[in-house]
């Protein structure tokens, strides 16, 4: 009976390591632009927000608007992301950026994407958790914190 308990404990530890540590390190397949040049849609879970979601959707957040007199929006965004910390830019161009944010306590990874619109000062945004279903508004709060930093730079 003791060996069954040991086996169960080992299986539980392996499962936890895979679920919490290994799997979140693998980037999700729904990253990058669609064939039509849009950000990927949010899944049907509350742990994703996007400015390209329907405005009536709970996943909707407004696009980020930059002051063009302060420089190229993506350059401003790079500066703000560096100031915020706890993120790594994975893909970086003058039109599209993908950054991975890491939570301080558990090390959860969230993917945040930015797409510059043709107007030259608006940036579409998508922020999604890699694992779980509920994020307790962490992605929405992150985008709103970004928006606040952008507005503070314009003052």
From TrEMBL:
It holds the Pfam family DUF1499. PANTHER family: EXPRESSED PROTEIN, SLL1620 PROTEIN. This is DUF1499 domain-containing protein. It comes from Saccharospirillum mangrovi.
